[in-house]
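User: Can you fold this complex?
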Amino acid sequence: MASLARIRPTIQRRLPLVRAIQTAADSSQLREGASHSEPFTVKLHEDSFRGYRTEAPDLDIEVTKEQLLTMYKQMNVVRRMEMAADALYKQKLIRGFCHLAIGQEAVSVGMEHGTTHQDRIISSYRTHPFAVLRGGSIKGLIGELLGRQCGMSHGKGGSMHVFTPAFQGGHGIVGAQVPLGAGLAFAAKYEDKPIATYAMYGDGASNQGQVFESFNMAKLWNLPCVFVCENNKYGMGTSAERSSSNTEYFTRGDKIPGIQANGMDILAVLKAVRHTKDWVVSGKGPILLEFVTYRYGGHSMSDPGTTYRTREEVQRMRSTQDPIRGLQRYIEEWGLASEQDLKTMDKEAKAEVDQAVEEAKQSPLPFEKDLWSDIYAKGTEPPFMRGREREEIHTF
Amino acid sequence: MAGRETRKMNMYQGVRDALSNAMMRDDTAVVFGEDVAFGGVFRCTMGLAEEFGRERVFNTPLTEQGIAGFGIGLAAMGHTAIAEIQFADYIYPAFDQIVNEAAKYRFRSGGQFSAGGLTIRCPSMAVGHGGHYHSQSPEGFFMGGAGLKVRTSIHTGSCLFDIFVQIVIPRSPIQAKGLLLASIRDPNPVIFMEPKVLYRSSVEQVPIDDYELPLGRAETLTPGSDLTLLSWGTPVYHCETALHMLGSPPESLARHVPQSLRSAKVELIDLRTILPWDVETVAESVSRTGRLVVVHEAGRTGGVGAEIGAEIQKRCFLKLNAPVKLVTGWDTPVPMQYEKFYMPDPLRILDAVVETLTY
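Assistant: Here's the predicted assembly.
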């Protein structure tokens, strides 16, 4: 196998190249002048999408100045928040497991802008940005990581377990949320709600059997479900090429059509989300959506992220394809805001996160009573339960 | 039963009646599983699709892990999800979904979401010729995997708790209907295992109205003072047969049953809910009788009997007159040709009762 792995890249290079997706973060072009007040149209790079069993979305996308600036601010905030989590973890204030999405901000923020809070998103354990964007707060997120009362799950879940009414979690078992997503979509269909369900997973989870089980059920029952593969190139410490016989994740749905999208350009993400939402809401059944993206950090805090890829690779992605720098370039080049304006926004984002961190740190540890809550539905608890030591008994 | 309208039903009809009652009152209730739309392999869902429509009663692919996950997602949206796993033997691919998702959804989301509306039904236990993959009793795996919730009394000290799929096993049509309705409506997830040999062989006059039987409560079938005999599902009947043999042994067995034991008063208890199991009723009984025999079909090692035995010896140590005795399946695959030797039959139970009474 080792020898095979060595040969493989050479073979691939010799094959005639299929036109590949490009992952530059700043390759979209203005159609006309960018308006400060009216929506205007942007043309995405022609290699922003690929389609499987369906046409790729067209390349025009309508945006507004306000939306671009909001996206810029949100991407900055969630990155600052993840960096704060990184620092708190290294100070040993956050314990347990913690997976950061630095580098993947275009996906979370782009999806937020392409959906409403009636739509459903269920994902894995790299989901801090989603929880905050979809109704949570930074304080609630950081508080959850710190295990404090103000945490989104009252400090009882931790990094992998964050939820809001518009975000169905936050799931720690690789791939296990995907069939749940099929269930969420079924509920929407049963209730005749014109909404989309996004069931998200990574390139690593894409090899889980239950992901294919979910594809099958969704297609069989024509569920309004978008299966989103967030392909950040590495499933834990194994690259996609070394784990997957087919790395074109958007083609893995058999009869389910798929779209591959540049997950580093937030405009391509937004377009793909709008397109897939229209798709499922119009009753065409499920669709796969692969975002080609990149995580700068390791799989989790205990993975330096440099044993299975080179520092140069990470550096190259950071310096040439960063989603935040890409959006920054659009905003500046299209004259929507000055460099100075954006720097001010950066500072505001940092201040906002810093303040939330301080507030979260002030929040006390969970109430002792919360050791006993949310285990059973209210009113169905046993008469009492034993606690951490022999004498500690809680009566319901 | 006095004054209530009843109908003669076997257990699959009792189950079907419960499903129908549940769906009638609750528009969000859906029934799904392999082949359930045309009635299911054991006929538990006969006619439901016609009665309630194919949107509410539908077949799934042969996808156990997917069925469980799908049901959890559906339940998380406030629906009543009633899934069928065609045989309990097929539930293992769904183990992760049940143990890691269903059991913990409420806790890890701080109460924002839960799989409480989920009930997973599955035919369980042996029929006599099912063999390796159609005769297993996997309740013990979930007892360990889902954790243990034990009712306790403050005065008797400690107990354990964890999280939270309940396991229910009925013994008859009346029980099946009442316990299944309670399971479906219980706001916590439940695995409901139906002893498949009883689907047809067990027949009762079942009330046709909508009723529930309490979860987490054992039922004492025969009161007694000399020994507690505890079982659930199919072996409850073998226990009854064994007790008849104890009282009046057939001639071929007479020399094995000492005269002095024939008038022994044995308390027979049907545990009904395996998790959380009714430790108070069992401990109270054993405290009076001083002897406990537990009978279950699953293999012994790591089984439910081992858990019960450990808890009872702790609570009743000074009251016990004999070691807790287990009569179980053997630690082998359920053998196709020798299934009747695998199952705890009346003879093995009788032997255990005699041994425990004469210890």
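The domain at 9-365 of chain A is CATH 3.40.50.970 (Rossmann fold). Chain A touches chain B through 54 residues (CB under 8 Å).
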